[in-house]
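Suppose you are handed only these lines of text.
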Amino acid sequence: MSAARSVTAVAHANIALAKYWGKADTAANMPAVPSLSLTLAALRSTTTVSADPALDADEVTLDGAVATGRARERVVRLLDELRALARSTVRLCVRSHNDFPTAAGLASSASGFAALALAGAHALGTPLAPAKLSAVARRASASAARSLFGGFVVLRLGADAAEPVLDAAAWPLAMVIAVTASGPKSVSSTDGMGHTRATSPYYPAWVAAAPALFDEVERAVRERDLEKLGAASEQSALMMHASMLAARPALVYLSPVTLRAMERVRALRSAGTPAFYTMDAGPHVKVLCEAAAAEGVAEALRSLEGVERVLVSGIGPAAQLVEAGS
Ligand code: PMV
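From them, the structure of the protein bound to PMV can be written out as follows.
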């Protein structure tokens, strides 16, 4: 190969409705529970990978800044796996950009690693099937396995890769994201999961209860029953947070603003708008509702004290290549 081959991929973030929290196998990055997510159209990572024989080390730039330490290592580890599959030793130049605020603690690793797996495989001249790419992305970040696919996506217990269960076009739902101003400094999900597993007496209860809740969430998606989906997904989020709250010391991602937003969602529901909250490893509140109700839900959240901004997203597509050159 003489010239650098440059490939760009786009992948969308996803929000879990049946949560993943806890690893069954840390080395293999295998989740202890099954999960189901919704891919979001409005939150995208764009990643360009160039295979350059002139480089003697990988170069990684994330949102304009050169990555170092753990962030760089996670990217290089994924590239090493792709190089092994491609039987190549060529070094790669990676530039990745998120079109949503990474600092706000929204799920940027999922879309970032999904786009990296897709662009990296093509840059190495080894286009892999989506399931194979999903497995590669899972080893970097389990939620990233789900961002290879669009619509509603599952990562089953013990599965190497995620799989789509319902197309984006099949059910026009929306997610309204309230970015909350304050909140504790975020503990990474890997550290948080390890700490919960090691110290929370509620962790075994969470792992035992999660599969049945996942089944309920998956059934509600297949039946397109928003009330059932919302009720089960709220319980999944709350049970996950209960396991964290019982850790020692407690892992508290929720802030007073989070609780106010949850209360507002309950009030919307009492007033007749089906809307359901979920929270991840941060204080932000993501609200699932019908696409037609999204603007009203966004307005109700915007007026809350402590809500910094509100994003509205429809359901997003699978990760895609946007450019392939040589
Ligand atoms: O895949 P990770 O390490 O980014 O962990 C994701 C954990 C949650 O976002 C809290 C839940 C989930 O299923 O996405």
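What can we learn from it? The chain has two domains: 5-169, 172-313. The domain at 172-313 is CATH 3.30.70.890 (Alpha-Beta Plaits).
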